[in-house]
Design goal:
By secondary structure, the chain is mostly helical. It is built from four helices and two strands, in the order E-E-H-H-H-H.
């Protein structure tokens, strides 16, 4: 026996072999048409663009490399100042809070039932 998924009952139902081998949504004999373009923006092929590359902004990588590679005794993850310290401390507080919560839950789970 052959089966196919019924969209009405949301279950597998018995069916003929031809219906089992052609899933819902796929019809035999229809020509495949390419879908219409949603965003009709012109595109450039790499060979058409030439050697110039257009950037949306300036390249900040060399400046950031100099900034992060200075040896001033501050760890890399805290180099940008107050926002980095706030993010670091929040992460550490949530980590310690999670460890304490897990230990309390483990302690409560280890206690015998009081019946």
């Amino acid at each position: 026996m052959y089966y196919k998924f019924s969209g009405f009952t949301q279950k597998l139902t018995g069916t003929a072999p031809t219906a089992a081998y052609s899933p819902q949504g796929l019809k035999q004999g229809l020509p495949a048409e390419s879908p219409t373009m949603i965003f009709a923006t012109p595109t450039k092929v790499v060979s058409e663009a030439g050697p110039t590359v257009e950037y949306l902004g300036t390249n900040k990588v060399p400046d950031l490399q100099k900034f992060f590679q200075t040896s001033d005794g501050v760890p890399v993850h805290l180099k940008r100042g107050y926002p980095d310290r706030l993010l670091y401390r929040t992460t550490m507080a949530l980590t310690v809070g999670g460890v304490v919560y897990c230990l309390v839950a483990l302690y409560i789970a280890a206690q015998p039932n009081k019946k």
